[in-house]
Design goal:
This protein has about 325 residues and is mostly helical. It contains 9 helices and no strands.
Length: about 325
């Protein structure tokens, strides 16, 4: 035991370990979004009808709660896996003396606590669509923090410079804002649509489903159009290969997401397609943020012995001045 404590105190994580720790936090934040969607889509939102217990008399799911109780309780337990991943990232950042990463990991820990409170409120209010929306949007915020933390774990960037023309960087910010608006519109569609999360949670938002769905679709079309325009601009200005690669990856994910969204609407919102759409929303958000982050160069740092150079940007500030 003492030897283990001494090893922990002397442990200095390598850059690869740091990246993997924060990648784990990013992956688990994505997984919890998808499983939370699965709880709603299987009508298991009130599978455990109270908090912090699963039932009035039991902390864990009972046989009487059936499959819905298992799904809801399983999602609650997954929160502990997420917490472990985030705490592992926090410890890694602490041992690496990375104050920037410690702060970001701390935000993730705080976010888990906020989500726990929101989750409790959601159950106690009978899956009120407004609290369900808030629960999802906070998850998207934490996903953004986790994606940024993973980027920072790969090495600091030079915030005062850029590797693309200023107007293209503005386009990147507009793209991120448009994705955020699309996510909000998507939650409105969810709160208006038939998947309330439980057959006893009948309260829905007072909007016409066709109207809010059309608004959501219009935002998606605008997003895809802006992404295509951004790719054309990146090619025309000889932008770095990494930026262009991330833009192309974003376009591919966005097109796939659009196809899934259209298919689920035309087929009357089947559970499997809606669940895939939730995953797609998370991936589009992550890909957009990674594209925006790639528009600033990394600080040139020596690669440690045995370390493989990261494939992200290491670009001279002068690149921003290219015509």
């Amino acid at each position: 035991m003492l030897d283990s404590l001494r090893q922990l105190r002397s442990w200095a994580p390598s850059p690869t370990v740091i990246r993997r720790a924060f990648l784990g936090a990013l992956v688990m934040n994505t997984v919890i979004v998808v499983t939370g969607g699965a709880v709603r889509l299987t009508a298991s939102g009130l599978g455990c009808p109270t908090v912090p217990k699963c039932t009035e008399t039991s902390m864990v799911v009972t046989r009487e709660m059936g499959v819905h109780g298992v799904i809801e309780f399983g999602n609650r337990m997954l929160t502990f896996v997420l917490t472990a991943a985030v705490l592992a990232a926090l410890v890694t950042a602490w041992r690496a003396a990375r104050r920037d990463l410690r702060r970001l990991a701390g935000v993730l820990v705080l976010g888990i606590l906020v989500q726990a409170v929101l989750g409790a409120v959601t159950v106690l209010t009978g899956l009120n669509p407004v609290t369900v929306m808030a629960h999802f949007l906070v998850s998207m915020g934490l996903l953004a923090v986790a994606a940024y933390a993973y980027d920072v774990a790969s090495g600091p960037r030079v915030r005062a410079t850029a590797v693309v023309r200023p107007e293209i960087r503005v386009g990147g910010y507009l793209l991120a804002a448009l994705v955020a608006a699309t996510l909000v519109a998507g939650t409105v569609v969810t709160g208006t649509g038939p998947h309330s999360g439980d057959e006893n949670a009948s309260h829905r938002l007072p909007f016409d489903l066709a109207d809010v769905t059309q608004l959501h679709a219009d935002l998606v079309v605008l997003f895809v159009g802006l992404t295509v325009g951004l790719i054309i601009a990146l090619r025309a200005t000889d932008a770095p290969r990494e930026v262009l690669r991330r833009a192309m990856a974003l376009l591919g994910i966005a097109l796939a997401q659009g196809l899934v969204g259209g298919a689920q609407y035309l087929t009357d919102l089947p559970v499997a397609l809606v669940g895939l759409h939730v995953l797609g929303a998370a991936l589009v958000w992550i890909a957009t943020l990674r594209l925006l982050l790639s528009m600033t160069p990394r600080v040139q740092e020596p690669v440690a012995t045995g370390e493989r150079a990261h494939d992200d940007l290491v670009v001279a500030p002068a690149a921003a001045a290219r015509p």
